[in-house]
Amino acid sequence: MSANEDQEMELEALRSIYEGDESFRELSPVSFQYRIGENGDPKAFLIEISWTETYPQTPPIISMNAFFNNTISSAVKQSILAKLQEAVEVNLGTAMTYTLFEYAKDNKDQFMENHQPVNSTVSLCFVLTSLCY
């Protein structure tokens, strides 16, 4: 099966599995977001997965750059991304978007155990203040 056929099948499966799930968002036919945790949960985070042309034979692009994650430190984000990358390596060559979202859901507490909310407004003010001197 070609990468395109694999992607079409996975897309259909994702749409079916996550139909009505408010945490799931299809940004395009090759890019998806999933909110891990409930709205208002200080340890909730958003994962974005985008497929390359040759996915699933090559890794997807996984990002935590969404504004939703602005209170999560870069160290915690990097730790989560590293753990997800390990799961990518194990699943390379197979449809894995659902697997990665579920892995993140199942491990949310462990992923966020070192999370201390970052107040981005204070950080921004500090940066702006230090630039003024």
TrEMBL record:
It comes from the Eukaryota. InterPro entries: RWD_dom (IPR006575), RWDD4 (IPR042770), UBQ-conjugating_enzyme/RWD (IPR016135). Residues 9-111 form the RWD domain. Pfam families: RWD (PF05773). SUPFAM superfamilies: UBC-like. This is RWD domain-containing protein. It comes from Gulo gulo. The lineage of its organism: Eukaryota, Metazoa, Chordata, Craniata, Vertebrata.
